[in-house]
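Inverse folding, one chain.
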């Protein structure tokens, strides 16, 4: 019998068992909002949701966290941290077996990817308003990074690829979230019918 690194059926069964007895009403409201966010990002690459302020704060914190690792890593640190935080959060929720929260983290990651894509795509044009912590002349992170890597002319191509990853992450997470809500609702309605028959 061959061992599989990722057993899809086992994971699916585990999630279905977790969904049993979960309240789907409040999660449905949250998911509707996440779908709204996904649609806005789909039609406006520069859209900023309520995640935007949090993402920006984490981005700026990343520069401070990596300030002792050299200038290049410090500049990249903003993007590194803003992508790492939702990923680490998703892993944490996997270990806590809160699978719906993992899908929320997937959408959160996607909002960061859309933000990064907009920033990367602006590397040559440099028309975006820049924010800096502590004063001083702001540095366009991705103009600096791509220039040092000698691939500045690739900025829009890289941005398109990142935007594609954001789309996959966003709508993959939403689809899984919808599926989980359907499982929760199915168990809920089945339980009510069983309760009525029992009465």
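Residues assigned per position:
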């Amino acid at each position: 019998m061959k061992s599989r690194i990722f057993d899809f059926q086992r994971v699916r069964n585990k999630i279905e068992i977790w969904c049993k007895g979960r309240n789907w009403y409040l999660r449905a409201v949250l998911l509707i909002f996440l779908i709204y966010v996904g649609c806005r990002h789909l039609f406006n690459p520069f859209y900023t949701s309520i995640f935007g302020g949090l993402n920006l704060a984490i981005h700026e914190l990343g520069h401070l966290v990596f300030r002792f690792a050299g200038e290049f890593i410090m500049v990249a640190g903003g993007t590194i941290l803003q992508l790492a935080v939702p990923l680490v959060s998703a892993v944490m929720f996997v270990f806590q077996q809160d699978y719906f929260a993992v899908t929320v983290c997937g959408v959160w990651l996607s909002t960061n990817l859309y933000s990064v894509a907009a920033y990367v795509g602006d590397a040559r044009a440099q028309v975006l308003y820049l924010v800096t912590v502590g004063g001083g002349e702001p540095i366009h992170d991705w103009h600096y990074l791509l220039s040092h890597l000698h691939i500045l002319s690739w900025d829009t191509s890289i941005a398109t690829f990142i935007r594609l990853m954001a789309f996959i992450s966003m709508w993959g997470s939403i689809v899984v979230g919808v599926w989980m809500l359907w499982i929760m609702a199915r168990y809920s309605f089945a339980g009510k019918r069983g309760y009525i028959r029992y009465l």
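The two ends are 48 Å apart (CA to CA). Residues 39 and 59 are 24 Å apart (CA to CA).
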